[in-house]
Amino acid sequence: MLGLLSATLLLSLAGQASMQLAGGLSDVKLAIDDPNVQFAVTAINTYYSKLGDAEARTLVDVVSAQSQVVAGTLYHLVLKLKTSSQVELCKVEVWSRPWLSGDEAIQVTKDPSCKMHIDATQAPKITGGSVVVDSGNPEVQKALMFATDSLNKMENSLYYRTPVKIEEVKSQVVSGMAYHFRGVQMAATTCLKSSGAVDLSSCALASPADTRVCDFDVWWQSWEAVPYKLTNYKCQ
Questions:
Q1: Cα separation, 205 vs 165, whole angstroms
Q2: Which residues form the signal peptide (predicted)?
Q3: Calpha distance 119→39 (Å, rounded)
């Protein structure tokens, strides 16, 4: 009898496991008005709004979609979204269980992740050599302010970061102007993103220190509706 009970228990556990992960990933096509896609866009906006980034993101395209049978259907989505200043690629997972009701019927399984996207056709055309410039130059400071704002929006952190030291800045004529920032120390502050826009110069630095070192380029074209673009960014 004990052996029979053990076997029954094992079969039950195996059945639960198969319900939790019953299939591999399959490519699917989802239209931009698909309910799962629309739910994902809303979830992304809600998530970043809670981090203090209230700028609305609107859907441009469904870059890729994969489905997986997981006690329902789990959709792995890569969406192209746009804000007033940039285009982003966002990864998000949506779990659909239409037989349930309320919030359990459809939900995201983990925090979305968005990064700025620059099309190859938008890459700056190099027309001149680069020269070292003073980091205190007003135009450099404007580019740095834009980059700081963009990096803060992209990082999944409760607190703002602010630049405290710059190793080097170079400028280059590139159908406009490109500023190459290297070794920028971005320190965490005590200012919460949930408090909305703040003057970073008034924010105290976090203790103990939490600093990331970043390299990035800022491309400036004064004639564009959005004159600044952040490219080639890397932080560690």
A1: 13
A2: 1-19
A3: 26
Residue with tokens 């990331």: 212
Fold classification of 25-116 is Nuclear Transport Factor 2; Chain: A, (3.10.450)
pLDDT in tens for each of the 236 residues of the chain? 444 344 444 444 444 443 344 568 899 999 999 999 999 999 999 988 887 777 889 999 999 999 999 899 999 999 999 988 778 889 999 999 999 999 999 999 998 988 877 665 555 555 567 899 999 999 999 999 999 999 998 888 899 999 999 999 999 988 889 999 999 999 999 999 998 889 999 999 998 889 999 999 999 988 888 889 988 889 98
Class in CATH terms, 130-235: alpha beta
Show Cβ contacts of residue 178 under 8 Å, excluding neighbours closer than 6 positions. 124, 130, 171, 172, 217, 218, 219, 220
